[in-house]
Amino acid sequence: MGEFNNNYYDNNNSYSYQGYSSNDHQNTSSYYSYYGSYNSYSQNQSQNYDDLKTSSFYSESYEKPRKGKIREMLVPMIIVALISSVIGGAVVGAWFQFGAPAVVQNNQSSGNSQTGVQQIKQVEIVGSYESPATAIAEKVSPSIVGIKVTYWVSNYWFGAQQNSGSGSGIIIRSDGYILTNNHVIEDAISSGNEIAKGASIEVILPNQPDESYEAKVVGRDEKTDIAVLKIELSELPAAEIGNSDELKVGELAIAIGNPAGLEFMGSVTQGIISGLNREIQVGNGKTLKVIQTDAAINPGNSGGALVNSKGQVIGVNTVKISGSEYEGLGFAIPINTAMEIANSLISDGYVKGRPQLGVSIDTRFTEELAKSYNVPVGLLVADVSPLSAAYNAGIKAGDIIVEFNGVPVKTFSELENEKNKYKAGDTVTLRIYRIKNTNARGQYDGEYLDIQVTLGEDKGN
Question: Is 225 a catalytic residue?
């Protein structure tokens, strides 16, 4: 039995709400009663029970619901359930579509702010996993070949001896055309593009180091130190050619070639572009305009490739300044110049349209000698080639060239620079000083002459 006592009022009346479960009677039905009690209450329980049954406020009735009312209750319940299902599904779907991603994003943002340093380290590791030189070498190295030259030399003491040398070359066309330096192969040349008797030029491919292929000379140019060879193979990996006119100082530069012989074939060195449009003197007083780099270039690298960060050939490695006082002074012929010469050699066998004067200059004639002999400073003609432009114009050995088409010239390089501003077939004016006789003091007397010369074509012979 449970009881709740309410003592809120100040009088002595107390009210209780009680539930009974009686087992005293055979009728096991439970009943509830609400009544007031007094302290002097002494009537017996049976009389109280009879009075309670006959009280006017007591009423108990039960009516079985009709089937129609069940249907009336069931239909609204089904409708409510359906509407609730639709609304609930929409709410859940909206949560997964909009709410959940926002929570995940917030969590990720929070996590990123706490682990930002770790992400930077990860990027650094990924970025330094492979250097640019590795990818460049993989791209370009298959296009860089070895060149072996065998030739004979005569010696007063030992007679004829066989010598050999080596260098590098660049595959510029898949049908077997190879670009290299003229000085790599010139010892095996008799004249023009002809290989000397008993001499040979062989090409070694990087993927076939134990096999060589005989090469012929397509053309060569001493002035630019460029030569083109041809081997009878097809489907070779030609190098990608870049644009040397777009180079900037400080760019990445990688040299690929065969330094110190074919034993070190395919060597890769890395540096930067140190300078542009450098002029250096090479054999026979010739001047080359070249690219300067600090990427290591050694004997055997000649004819190999100087490559940019895209794996494009931007120069032909040619020469270095060596010595105990020098470090990192390597030079390459710009690829734009090299390819212009190479294309002309392939199509014509020589550099077409190049002007030729047809004179040999005595470089021993200096400004001091000119003053001592009382003659003008200029270039002393030592010899004139038969049937050349100078020969046809009447220039003779002993003449002193002082101007080329109105421009004063004192050195061979100045004369070459002025001449190369024109093409074969152009007519120019040469001012010369021609010696007539020697006076009593041992000095020369002469006269100035202006001679019209139609420039010939230099075919490289």
Answer: yes
